[in-house]
Predict the structure of tRNA dimethylallyltransferase.
Amino acid sequence: MKTLTGASIVPDRSAVPSVRRIPFIVGPTGVGKTDVALTIARSGEALILSIDARQAYRRLDRATGKPAEISEREIHRLLDIWNPDTPSSAARFSKAFHDELRKARNQRRRFLAAGGSGLYIDAILGRIDPMPEIDPSLREALRREWDKSGGEALHQRLREVDPETAGRIAPRDAQRILRALEVWHQTGIPLSGWHRSGHGSYDLRQGPLIFFLARDPNDLRERITDRCRAMVEAGLVGEIRELLDEGLSPNAPGFKTLGYQEWLRYVQGECDEKSAMDQMILKTWQYARRQMTWFRNRYIGIKRIEIPPDEPAGDTAARIVRQLPGEWGTSESEP
């Protein structure tokens, strides 16, 4: 398989000016981003550009926290933009984000961004260089090799060319192993190298406005537990079974997301109900902790918004609105 060597990575900073005055509402899963963003959007008659890797998948509704009401969905953009059998891509998502941004501006609509997918936010800000499209023949060749040799062999190959990425991926995770090998063979640069292209802290003092929602860890963990249980009660298992019955592969990228991977094992008889629930709660909490670390270390000048356990979303939103630029009606200061 042909590789390209000697390539360099230069993040695309040209994306930054177009988002300089956009408020970003970010934070860990379960912190309350959606309710706060909805309140701000309604107060300013604005659109919400969702930045959530899981909400981008069609038909995956129960465990992704998508807005439930039609009125809420109508003001959201970037929900349901690709099928659950489509590999996710920060570069593709960034393009979709900027396309929606241009539409909103052409319509003279206000907008804000909300989500917790840190890599996607980095791509939107031009912190990582968009990776090239993968040659379909390369993708198919690697898939055939996986089917023939198994995950251990390809995971070992990944350890040889990109030990940093391999250390974060389980040997059974076909989607992520194959993606990392695709990038290596296509570009000659390890996936970890692409991700490091925007390494270091990003100075936000010249914009954009990024508000990081935070809660006491005990409060957040309790909210995550309640949220996971509510997702299951709302029909998560039935949704998984319906998708499988319609022919979606258990190895589909959409099933690799939080909530689905744990309950897919239950549906396939690999674990009991209690184990699936415990794993969903645990992995969601672990993901939330990684998100907190990401935003804490990634940006200089991020505006941290501490949310007390009993504070309504409207009050949190009001505190943010007071810090927004003048077109939001409360502050004339430049970001």
Observations:
- Strands lie at 23-26, 46-51, 76-77, 110-115, 202-203, 209-214, 299-300, 303-306.
